[in-house]
Amino acid sequence: MAGRFTPRPTGTTVRGGHVVVPPGVPRQATPPGRRRTWTPPGPLDLGLVLGPLRRGPADPTFRATPDGAVWRASRTPVGPGTLRVALRGAVAEAEAWGPGAEWLLDQLPKMLGALDDPGAFEPRHPLVALARHRRPGLRLTRTGLVLESLIPSVLEQKVTTDEAYRAWRLLVRKYGEPAPGPAPERMQVMPEPRTWALIPSWEWHRAGVDDKRASTVVRAVRVAARLEQATGMEPAQAQARLEVVPGIGPWTSAETVQRSHGAADSVTVGDLHLPGIVGYALAGDREADDSVMLTLLEPYAGQRHRAARLILLSGRVPPRRAPRMRRWDIGRL
């Protein structure tokens, strides 16, 4: 893993994680942050690798800009930080701002899949083989951060994705803080654990989050340090630690470690749609449940999450027959 750092220019002022620009100076004149480059060992598709970190098209913590760059605003163990990543040929170039800048740059190779091993995957179905052939740049991200994946996953429990994305967007914009550096407009760093714990019940309600999910988030942030320690564990151990928190089950823990740990085998169980998609793609069984899905994925033991992602990327899904999940707006009750 090759990389280099460029120190923040002399004279730059940073307050609260933000680069302070003198009045009248255009936003694009913000001094550069710290920099690092990394050359991946094979093809890399930023959209495929980092896409799972995006919680909807208006996610305040994630932006994909027209120049092909991906911006992320994160709360790292050493403070908030903003990261911009873009590909120049085969090289990933990154720049970061804020107290968490150096931490984000240290994590860059892992976030772009350096610890992932796509070569360990052996397709055992023509559809899966074709999906992998068409997307050679797929690698599994590893952020090294638990809460930033856990909280939005809790918000996604038992509701539509649109409802969950709306809740995440509203709460981060109201209680987060502006992303450091020259981040695109309205980018925010998610709230710190104490802030999540102090959100009033009526604000959860306005965001469309029921008491059960809100309580789960509050219980999780109260033991935030213990949960973040799970990044040093194997994915199965990390899931077990997360599931000690009431309200966090196998679905939520899997969705979390897939992102925080790059867990290639942590397949999502308890999902409303995934079993039917996997069953239809691999066996023509649109009524498959979790047990059928796990049986079909058994040949991919150790790589079941990657297999499921490739199946989703293949676009082969059963024709919609059942009505969509009904949307509930508890903010109007």
TrEMBL record:
The entry's keywords: DNA damage, DNA repair
Domain of life: Bacteria
One CC-aspect GO term: protein-DNA complex
Keyword rRNA-binding: no
Membrane-crossing segments per the record: none
UniProt key word DNA damage: yes
Protein name listed in UniProt: 3-methyladenine DNA glycosylase
Organism: Streptomyces colonosanans
